[in-house]
Amino acid sequence: MDYNMNYKECREYLKTLNEKYGISPGLDTIKKLLSLCKNPEDNVKIIHVAGTNGKGSVSTFISYILSAGGYKIGRYISPAVNGYREKIQYIENDEVTYISETDVSRYISLLRKKSDEVYFETKKHPTEFEIETAMAFMAFADWKCDYVVLECGMGGRDDATNAVENKEICVFTTIAMDHTEYLGDTLSQIAENKAGILRKGVRAVSSRQVSEAADVFIKYANRYKASLSFISEYDILESKAEGTVLRYRKKKWNIPLPGIYQAENAVTAIEAVKALDGGKLDINDDIIRKGLNNAKWPKRFEIVKENPYIIIDGAHNPCGIKRLVESINAIFPKSRFYRIGIMGVFADKDVAGMVSGISGVFNEIHTVTAPGMRGLPAEKLSGIIKDITGEKAICHEGMEAKELCSDIINGVYKETEDMVIIIFGSLSLTAEN
């Protein structure tokens, strides 16, 4: 077989794998694949990030802080919203570079051959995500990254990223109910899955957690003899469209990313960086401030337009919705702003819980169908909103969120700054291919 493929062929190959071969739980397959590739993950320093909400933001802050300190940082993110190649990237001198199409073709062509060898030996074929994870490790090793900020795709214990044994630090963001069909239907079960990324003696930092999740992390940290710390309390001094000002450990910090919830994420990142190398990493407060100021993270309460304001937020579970609403109320009070929501969700999410959280929030609510096979039909979502909140939701079947947003502005906007449109429910609503 000729294993040499171009970029388009590699993408098509990956898309067929899960349906063709199925998915086998556990880490045996990805570990076998990495072994055949000479374990590239052993050549990089891993910062492993797990959690329900905030993984991407915390990873972003960590990456930019370390970059401001002069380090070359690899990032593996999920999901990608600015095109496929965004998943694997590095940051150097505050500039982001995505993996190239040429590199994707080279790595996937090799990994297809190695995956066939795995299947021949074990009768289990690596999944799309497992192959992409192996590609990420190969790229980070070849790029000679100083640190790699590695986001779990889903869960923790059985996630392909957890094939890594040597970790510099583990970071836990907020735990909430999500992916319950895979991770468990209680916070304790979900936290146990996330805690599975811990290793013996590793340092760990966590965002604030409800007691049910915190108790699990403490138990697992004791089991692994891991050094676990939770972030301290902080005070939000100001929150507006330009960002948030907070006081933490008697110091002021400016967070340029809007959204009140970014304060929690920034503090978690600060503590994670300070814990690296046993707290001896040469990163001072000025470098941290520079990194926070440079941070960019699209589609997370991102203001993509002003006059009127258009906000994109990837809130996709009840906890995310709660945080979104808190930010809307703080920055765009209903007493001043006419608030329009555009909502699209995946059918396998806690749609009822999400809808309950938006009751009374918007002056108008519109629904679209999230792209892909998992998208809940806009008409059905409108019905759920009516049933739960009693509010009418205007259904737009066959229309994308961005197109609807333009139509709303053209039809409603009357030379006033006092309108805000929020696109939310899934990162996929405005994702690029």
List the topology elements.
Blueprint: H1 7-21, H2 28-36, E1 46-50, H3 55-68, E2 73-76, E3 88-92, E4 95-98, H4 101-122, H5 128-143, E5 147-151, E6 169-172, H6 180-183, H7 187-195, E7 203-206, H8 211-224, E8 227-230, E9 234-240, E10 243-248, E11 251-255, H9 262-275, H10 285-294, E12 302-305, E13 309-312, H11 318-331, E14 338-343, H12 351-356, E15 364-367, H13 378-389, E16 394-395, H14 401-412, E17 419-424
Parallel strand pairs: 1-5, 1-6, 2-5, 6-7, 7-8, 13-17, 14-15, 14-17, 15-16
Antiparallel strand pairs: 2-3, 3-4, 9-10, 10-11, 12-13
Helix pairs in contact: 1-4, 2-4, 3-9, 3-10, 4-5, 7-8
Structure, briefly:
The protein is an alpha/beta fold. The chain has helices at about 5-20, 30-35, 55-70, 100-120, 130-145, 180-185, 185-195, 210-225, 260-275, 285-295, 320-330, 350-355, 380-390, 400-410; strands at about 45-50, 75, 90, 95-100, 145-150, 170, 205, 225-230, 235-240, 245-250, 250-255, 300-305, 310, 340-345, 365, 395, 420-425.
Number of helices: 14
Which homologous superfamily in CATH is the superfamily of the largest domain? Mur-like, catalytic domain
Strand content: 15-25%
Mean pLDDT metric: 91
Q: Which runs of at least 5 residues are low in confidence (pLDDT < 50)?
A: none
Q: The CATH topology of the largest domain, please? A: UDP-N-acetylmuramoyl-L-alanine:D-glutamate ligase
CATH architecture of the largest domain: 3-Layer(aba) Sandwich
Structure description:
- 39% of the residues lie in helices and 18% in strands.
- It is an alpha/beta fold.
- The protein has an eight-stranded mixed sheet with strand order 4-3-2-5-1-6-7-8, sandwiched between helices.
- Strand 9 and strand 10 form a beta hairpin.
- The two termini are 29 Å apart.
